[in-house]
Every structure is written in structure tokens, then in C-alpha cells.
Amino acid sequence: MVKIDDTDHRLLRALSRNGRISNLDLADRIGLSPSACLRRVQELERIGIIKGYRAVLDSEKLGIGFIAYMTVGLATHTKTAQVGFEQAMTAAPEVRECHNITGTVEYLLRVEAADLASYKHFHTEVLGVLPMLRSITSYVVLSSPKDDRG
After folding, report:
1. Cα–Cα distance for residue pair 126/26, rounded to 1 Å
2. Which CATH code, of 3.40.190.10, 3.30.70.920, 3.90.740.10, 3.40.50.1100, is assigned to 66-140?
């Protein structure tokens, strides 16, 4: 594990809120000189703590009106089943997140679709045809009072 200090943590918090902040504004906010700030950010990028920068998208304006989290259980616990499932989820544009988890099921998905009909199509025509599945449970998102994902 890489050791980072309090200043690095403050830099990371500021960048996670606004990845487009200028170096001058970031340096001012953190209390560093612009050159010291830039060196620290570049070092955090170099060592891989900062893996990239993203845009936060407006799902509604993109036509995404239906979001659900799904748990998926596999029928067999083999590497082949895992790889096959993960490849299918990587290829599915509706799947925005796929996490291999512990517990009574193997995967947690975040699925975004235009509407209920589009979600049903994904559920039956993408997930429903995978031979390695044992169970699927859906949790429909009604609202998101807090969402800090980048």
C-alpha cells in the first residue's frame, strides 16, 4: 500500500468533487504553491492512485429512465462460469457496474435502461439466456438522495 499524507487526501477529495478544477484553484484550495500542487497530482497519477478523470452524466437527459441493482447467483462456481458471465456483462451496454461480491450470490450489477420495457428485454434476453445463472433479484431505484460516484 502506498502511503499518502493529509495534503494528498485533501487533493484527492477536491479532485473527486471536481476533476476539471484548474491547478491554480486546486493549489489555492489546498494551500500549496501551484508547482508543488502539480507535482503532487502528477505523482498521484504516476503511482496509480488517480486512475483517470470522468464526466458525471445526466441520466435523465440521456434517456435513462430506469435504474436497478441486481443480484445474480451462479449455478456453478467454476472459473469458466465466472469468466463467461463477466464477459457477457462487459458486452452489455445496460450494465454500468458489475461487482463480484461475497454472500449468498456472486454478483451485484447496476443496470440502466430507457424504461421498464428496455429493462425487461435486458432481464429476459440478455441475462435470462445465460446458462450459468441460478438466480436473479432486482432492486428498482426509486430515488438517489446521495450518489457520489464519478
Report:
1. 44
2. 3.30.70.920
Separation between Cα atoms, residue 22 and residue 15, nearest integer Å: 10
**Confidence check: pLDDT of 150 > 70:** no
Maximum alpha-carbon separation in the chain: 58
Backbone torsions φ then ψ of 17, nearest 5 degrees: -80, -35
Q: Is 63 helix (H, G, I), strand (E, B) or coil?
A: coil
Residue ranges per structural domain of the chain? 6-46, 66-140
CATH topology (fold) of 6-46: Arc Repressor Mutant, subunit A (1.10.10)
Q: What is the pLDDT of residues 33-68, one digit of tens each?
A: 999 999 999 999 999 999 999 888 888 899 999 999
Half-sphere exposure of 105 (CA within 13 A, CB side): 15
Strands 66-74 and 95-100 come out as unpaired
**Whole-number Å distance between alpha carbons of 93 and 90:** 8
Q: Is the pLDDT of residue 149 over 80?
A: no
